[in-house]
Design brief:
This protein is mainly β and 127 residues long. The chain contains no helices and eleven strands. Strand 1 and strand 2 form a beta hairpin. The relative contact order is 0.15.
Length: 127
């Protein structure tokens, strides 16, 4: 193929432009890199498990501590998780099963106002 798109780079073989093999008119539309969904969590009574459609998760811990469970990792999946609370309650982020979170198979916590951007990589886990 003379035009390839891998989700980050658009590659055009210049030898094919103008040869009748490549038409570069119009627009290229992609959903790559777009925010799919923002989610607001306020319920401290039960854990929230992030969905594949979540990208930014606002966790208001003013009503109590919240646990956000990460789903089974998919290579390249990214979440931004934010503790929007102001009362000193913690937001706990838990990896799925034996997956790693920041290099360990253990929870991580965020205090009021902290945020964490996590991307999953098959070997390294969530970083």
């Amino acid at each position: 193929a003379s035009i390839t798109y891998d989700g980050t780079d658009l590659n055009i073989n210049p030898k094919e432009v103008g040869s009748g093999k490549v038409n570069i008119e119009g627009t290229l539309d992609t959903k790559e890199g777009r925010i799919v969904n923002t989610t607001r969590i306020t319920d401290s009574g039960s854990p929230y498990t992030a969905l594949g459609t979540d990208h930014v998760i606002f966790c208001d811990t003013d009503g109590g501590a919240i646990t956000a469970n990460l789903p089974s990792g998919v290579n390249g999946q990214t979440y931004k998780i934010i503790n929007t609370g102001t009362t000193g309650n913690l937001l706990t982020i838990s990896p799925n099963g034996s997956e790693l979170l920041l290099g360990a198979n253990s929870d991580s916590t965020l205090i009021d106002g902290e945020s964490l951007i996590l991307t999953y990589e098959t070997t390294e886990g969530w970083y």
